Amino acid sequence: MTNVSTNLNNKGIGSFFAFVENHDKNLTKHKTVFSPENKMLFYTGRQAIKYLIELIRTEQNAFTIWLPEYYCMHVTEWLKSNYSNIETYKTNPSNPKHIINAFEFASKKDVIIINNFWGVSECLIDTGGIDVITIEDHSHGWLSNSCINSKADFCMTSLRKSLPIPLGGMAWSPKNHELNKSIKLMTSESYEPIWDKTLTAMVYKNEYEKTGNLSLKKESLLLIKDAELNLHKNYNLTSIQSKHEEIINKFLPINYLEFKSENIKELHKSLQTNQEFEIIDTNTSTTFGLILHFKESTNLDKIRTYLIDNNIYPSLLWPGNINTYGYYLNIHLDYRYTKKDMLYIANVLNKTDDTLK
Ligand SMILES: Cc1ncc(COP(=O)(O)O)c(C=O)c1O
Hints:
- By secondary structure, the chain is of the alpha/beta class.
- The protein contains ten helices and 15 strands.
- It folds into three domains: 115 residues, Aspartate Aminotransferase, domain 1 (Alpha-Beta Complex), CATH 3.90.1150.10; 157 residues, Type I PLP-dependent aspartate aminotransferase-like (Major domain) (Aspartate Aminotransferase, domain 2, 3-Layer(aba) Sandwich), CATH 3.40.640; 42 residues.
- The chain has a seven-stranded mixed beta sheet, with helices on one face.
- The mean pLDDT is 94.
């Protein structure tokens, strides 16, 4: 396999965030004013969805929850463990203008979860006049056009995908539906150890990046894996400790999208087109990262291994889905990375043809 020379030192491209102070100069360079007035914070995106479903259940009981057929399997499995009334509808993750024809499958008062694929989906839905309830998932599109200008009944996001915080999710209602109804939230004990474990992993990662001490890297990866497993098994709907809420609120005013937007522009100056995968791109909005779409699995594994060998750790979004949609790899382009890193990523990707020979 080809190895491209790098000056990344210990900082690989991707994986979870290393610890960073909220007043870090690089991080606070771009600011946003977007913060929904009626938001509620949770430990995870999954909790935010569950809260919204419980909220809807205070008004009605007999409804189907519709999820995209192609979706984050952690969410699908977690929701299926909580609710039995779940069905799926066909989608198109590669087409930002895909319209969900809800009238073909949904009934009055059903709940339709609409995923903002890669942060560039326009979240279009044709209800055909049927009175459905919409929940948009902006986990990969925090601060994107669709997120900020949403007209959905409710929105949620897994904040921890964009903010360097141990845990965090948010629910809000662009239509100003009341969120603070008397829904019973458990106390936060079961999530506190997961927050602490993730925070320790982030601190270790930061130390590793500074020192190159490999045992810190190993330990941080073990901790993060364990924390994620704990999240998969934790179905509790809890409140969030106020000291954790305060930490999340300190990271919220940062415009994470602006960093990506600058990086994507930079990357495209050097990135060449490729036969092996399609780059999901748009001129009007900013993708979550660099999203590569593979139709077949044949080259996916080879390219993934090649990227990892070159210190780029892409995430597969998402494992466990039916393969008719192909496979999507995300390369992180967030605030952690510089113009030089973009050139490095472009150089590595421009050599993938050699790798597949
Ligand atoms: C699109 C999407 N929505 C929601 C979630 C759930 O977020 P969390 O892991 O914070 O529960 C994830 C990831 O797990 C995701 O990829």
